[in-house]
Amino acid sequence: MAKAYLLSNGRYVRYDTDADRVDADYPKALSTGWTNLPEAFTSDLDAALDLAGGKVYLFKGAEYVRVDQQSNTVDPGYPVLIADFWPGLAEAGFGAHLDAAVTWNNGKAYFFRGDHYLGYDLNADHADPHPKLIAGNWPGVAEAGFGDGINAAVTWNNGKAYFFRGDHYLGYDLNADHADPHPKPIAGNWPGVAEAGFGGLVDAAWLKLAQRTGPAASGDEHGGWARAHDVLHVGGTLAWRNNNPGNLLPGRMPYRNALAVDRRGLAIFASHEDGWTALRGVLRSSVYNPLSMGDALMKYAPSGHGNNDPVLYAKRVRQLTGLDPARRVADLDDAELESFMLAIKTVEGFEEGRTFQRTDPSLPPEFAALFP
Questions:
Q1: Span 176-212, pLDDT tens digits
Q2: Is the bond preceding 79 in cis, omega lying within 30 degrees of 0?
Q3: Would you list the DSSP string of 235-302?
Q4: Where are the domains of the chain?
């Protein structure tokens, strides 16, 4: 049973896609739906985006917050600037005041602003080089009067996406890659939406997506891995089992490609590449980039967190890299940054274990029994 959320003027409704109507007891105020939502985000949101990782991203002005959809709580450390954590958006003129955002079936998200849109590759974690006109690139959309000023967009679970503009909406067939012939009024076609007072404007919308395929629990819980994959991970350190070479904490920085969090609070990534990309993003962020390497490591591995000794940590990194800790992270070239990251990976204790396929004849019986 899928649920969608439609927002308007500081309120929201929850829409049951199976029943095809707004749930009872809605609308509600945004401030009552999500804990720790900053005051500025309690009305007039610009856009929303669900990337199927259990998080939804709410955009307003030049900032955004990330909301955990299980606890309905804003993650710590937010809001943050769009420009700092969505590479390429600000450079393309999409760093503030978005009109709408939507995930697509091609591994991309699309951001809309005025009569232009910008693609964002979720795997590469970077925006396309240039924005493009909606007209001529979204067949039928401009012809239906939706070529600029889209208020909200959402991908549905019926093979369609819906664009909202004023008191009308427009369906878009994802497989045919073409808009429906004509827009329709929200009133009378979205049961309960107009009755909730949303018939004239939908600010933002998203369909709550299931978690992406990935580890069901931390990597040392072999049964969790077996249920989530046809591959069993045995031995190795948590950093390896979680595909998290930097032992990153998702509460500290926003990792859009993290699948989940293990019971120790460490991020779990679908692949080592995803974890590596996240670590690079942290070090190149506005939080770490201006710092010296030494200061960056003091922030990265502060005393009082676990058994961290930041002085020894920094000393070990210097031994491994040969780099002057007084140098700014921003001044490191790509090869030097890679060396810095490899040193962090080593100090974090990244050690590989063994993987077994379900059909592997060498799979020990006690592990084979973990596969359902």
A1: 999 999 999 999 999 999 999 998 899 999 998 754 3
A2: yes
A3: SS-HHHHTT-TT---TTTS--TTEEEE-TTS-EEESSHHHHHHHHHHHHTSTTTTTSBHHHHHHHHS-
A4: 3-207, 236-352
